[in-house]
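Convert to structure. Protein one:
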Amino acid sequence: MKHITLCAESNDGVNIIFENLKTAMENMVRELPINNKELLILKSIMDSEDITSAEISEMFSVSKAAVSQFVSSLENRGYLKRRLSDKDRRRIYFDITDTGRELVRMTDEYIAGSINIVKENLGEKDYKTMTELLKKTTKILAEISGDKRYIPASGAANIK
């Protein structure tokens, strides 16, 4: 709470919004069997045909050792599996399992349900205004920071 109070005194509330959004997302996945980073890694693997640990490391700005731990944990729980490249046996790719796909689907539904509650409480007009402003803010912040993970086409960002 002290952090939020300091933010409120130092600016117009943007930090409060981002901090609360981050906390809300963390709380949403807290009840799930995986954490935020693991979910993002699973989604990345699901969206990519051939993805390596080095690419995941770069994508999420985490060390290769951390990616190795995340991947091992996800593999041990049956959410993904490793696959050797047909062209270069030194390259290891990751594939999401049916169990992992189901977990991502469940998680997406859970998060969408939570977002719908926000939407219902704000009303259509305010919700649309909020999302447009958050997209613009995220894009500006990504440009300022040089963050290459921003995805302009979808209007979303992979936020840590």
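Protein two, convert as well:
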Amino acid sequence: MMHTKMIDLVARRFQVLGEPCRLRVLQALQDGPMTVNQIVDRLNGNQPNISKHLQILFDAGLVGRDRSGNSIFYSIADPVVFRLCELVCRSTARQAASVQKYAAMRRSAIPTRSNRRLKRSSLQGAR
């Protein structure tokens, strides 16, 4: 059982990962360290927005940064984030397949107009 403080920390991490732009930033960094401008170019984003998300990811311990001359390079600090994303992707794909299967079953069980007309006419003919 998780301690209350640990639950808060886990919830915070999921909150940080709940923003699609931050997931795209992490995905870009999966190829290796990059500067803010390189990330902006890769994501076709804008610099202030990407910088804001990088700061949030840094504060959460998901990315690190290293200075090299005048440039700051961001990199993945906690590669476990990719395993977590992979697990969520697999689970989401399984759930989507189940929903599609259920929806297909429901569609086949719902009578169409032509089926209803056929039923009515066969019931009327039976009288």
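The two ends are 66 Å apart (CA to CA). The first strand starts at residue 63 and ends at 68.
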